[in-house]
Amino acid sequence: MTKTIILIFFLLLVIISCDEGLSPEMATVNPGFGGTVTFVGNWDTQVKRTHVVLFKNPLLSKKDFNAFNLKFVSDSIATGTRIYKYNTNDKTSLVSSIKAGEYAYLAVAQSKTEKLSLNREDWFIVGLYSTIENDSIKPKTLTIPEATFIDSINIICDFNNPPPQPPGGLVNSKVFNLLINQFIK
Q: Residue 18 falls within a domain, yes or no?
């Protein structure tokens, strides 16, 4: 009799607690995004660091390039890579504080310094999540809804056709020469 009561109690407990199984409401999605970076052309052999970087606010001045504005930094991308997959929820990311909201500047940045630096002068942009407005390339706003992961946020880094540089940095000599050659023609 005691075994029967225990069995009935156990069955009732299972039935009551498992009425929806793993419902979508119970699953939580970490907000974020991911995609692929495609590199076209020859890598600069002097580059020591390459990262996907995300800034919350636009880079309108040198002061906007700061740790408080920086919301994502991927792991270092190996020199010579042709295709790199990234994900803001990846545990190897150097910085990842993604929340639902709007982000103003997503790019691939390179540096010729060995150590990771927050000096704007040490970085140049080789790829940009962008849109074209009035024949010029502009950073595209990335909007992440609540509890949503967005896939296919892809960036192309064409070393022969670099994007505009944000204020305050030194331009990679290869990029600078390409830009000068475009104006001379």
A: no
Phi, psi of 5 (to 5 degrees): -65, -45
Residue 161 φ then ψ, to 5°: -145, 70
How is the chain classified by DSSP, letter by letter?
-HHHHHHHHHHHHHHHHTSSSS-TTT-----EEEEEEEEESPPPTT--EEEEEEESS---SGGGSSTTTEEEEPPPPPTT-SEEEEETT-TT-SEE---SEEE-EEEEEEES-SS----GGGEEEEEE-EEEETTEEEEPPEEE-TT-EE----EEEETTSPPPPPTT-PPPHHHHHHHHHHHH-
| Domain span at 58 | 29-184
Q: What is the per-residue pLDDT for 170? A: 56
End-to-end CA distance of the chain: 96
In a domain, residue 153? The reply is yes
Listed as ranges, residues in the chain with pLDDT below 70 are 1-27, 169-185
Q: What is the C-alpha separation between 68 and 63, in angstroms, rounded?
A: 11
The pLDDT, as a whole number, for residue 134 is 80
Q: Is residue 6 part of a domain?
A: no
| pLDDT, tens digit (0-9, with 9 covering 90-100), for 154-169 | 999 999 999 999 987 6
pLDDT for 133 equals: 83
Instruction: Count structural domains, the chain.
Output: 1
Inside any domain, residue 5: no
